[in-house]
Design a protein that fits this description.
Length: 386
């Protein structure tokens, strides 16, 4: 069986972030087209402002209002119905649809074209690990959203998850059969792994503070103060957000718009730290590892599946300044350990967490799933009475 035409659907921002995956998928499908979601009427400036204002009054905060605005049954259904209509009106319908993330489904009323989903997280995980991502106005609205998710997952021909954490959630929280979910991982913003040199000795530590609280920013600052007492020349670079204060040894350039500028920071840094309370499968870690920068991470979400403890980085069991500081000091003071971890990190990116490997697995699984489905239909037809 051949699948010639693959249609990729999803939010525009998610399609843009995974452009290297799609480039790798072009090696497996003769046609690869995209269907970024179009805005609904309520997402126009005036209605959005009014609705978010009302939700802020109801929830008591703008951040919770933003969460409710995105995560409700009406939004899920409208987005799904719009996508289904657009697919049905295409002049050349695709053979298969790949939906990026679970904010809506590419089918709602009918499932005439098979689809798979690529997921980094579920709402059930968000509810347990970072409740700000799973805010609902009532128990009923929560149940409605979970039912929308469950329907989308159950109707999918297959689901590709970034981590085993997500696969377990799909099985336990949504009753999805284990053989319907394949863990494929993810990768960074590059097509081919970095092959240049990587040196150490800068004593520079890099932290992505774009979502400061969730990513453990206060833990990083507290730990760094302890590091400076032992290694006075150590430097911490915080990117992603401008901090409202200055601190000795801390450099804070804020958002780095240039991809090459960020890559230089990886090459200049001895370590990346990510003691996050919640971070599904962070691209930042894989970017760092691609450039040979070992990472120290918390034992949360998919991070221990990216970083193998004491092999290509360090996984701290407890999110505490003392544990993080001890790991940073020990690693910075052990050049041979840094080099060994760097080499192991680059090897993992080259052999496992790269888009070509992931695209191969996705394409092969889609084809195998469709062939098995076709065989089942033929067998069922043969069993029907004449």
């Amino acid at each position: 069986m051949e699948i010639n035409s693959l249609l990729v659907s999803g939010e525009s921002i998610f399609l843009e972030r995974h452009q290297f995956l799609f480039k790798a998928l072009t090696n497996h499908f003769s046609q690869l087209n995209f269907l970024p979601r179009q805005s609904e009427w309520y997402e126009a400036k005036l209605p959005k402002t009014v609705l978010k204002g009302l939700l802020a009054l109801r929830t008591g905060s703008l951040s919770q209002a933003n969460a409710v605005f995105q995560k409700n049954k009406t939004a899920f259904v409208l987005k799904s119905q719009q996508t289904e209509r657009r697919i049905q009106h295409l002049s050349e319908p695709p053979d298969f649809v790949l939906q990026i993330f679970g904010t809506y489904s590419p089918a709602w009323h009918t499932c005439t074209i098979p689809y798979a989903m690529f997921l980094d997280y579920t709402t059930a995980l968000a509810e347990r690990n970072w409740s700000a991502w799973a805010t609902f106005l009532s128990d009923l609205s929560r149940q409605d959203w979970f039912e929308c998710e469950r329907l989308a997952y159950s109707r999918a021909t297959h689901i590709f998850s970034m981590s085993h954490v997500v696969k377990r959630s799909l099985i336990q929280d949504y009753n999805i059969p284990a053989d319907k979910v394949t863990v494929v991982g993810s990768s960074g913003d590059f097509q081919e792994p970095y092959t240049g040199e990587k040196t150490f000795g800068s004593r520079q530590i890099l932290f992505n503070g774009s979502d400061f609280e969730r990513k453990g920013g206060e833990i990083v600052l507290a730990a760094f103060r302890q590091v400076r007492r032992v290694i006075p020349e150590a430097k911490l670079v915080v990117v992603g957000k401008k901090l409202p204060f200055e601190e000795a040894g801390v450099v804070n350039p804020g958002h780095i718009a240039s991809r090459s500028g960020l890559h230089q920071l990886f090459l200049q840094s001895d370590l990346v730290v990510a003691p996050a309370y919640c971070d599904p499968f962070p691209t930042f870690l894989m970017e760092a590892m691609n450039y040979g920068t070992p990472c120290i991470v918390s034992d949360r979400d998919g991070m221990p599946e990216i970083v193998n403890h004491d092999i290509n980085g360090i996984v701290i069991a407890q999110i505490a300044p003392e544990q993080l500081a001890e790991a940073m000091i020990d690693t910075l003071n052990n050049p041979q350990k840094l080099i060994a971890m760097s080499q192991a990190a680059r090897y993992k990116m080259k052999t496992q967490l790269n888009w070509n490997t992931i695209a191969d697995q996705i394409a092969q699984t889609i084809l195998a799933t469709m062939e098995a489905d076709q065989s089942d239909r033929v067998a069922l037809k043969l069993r029907e009475p004449a």
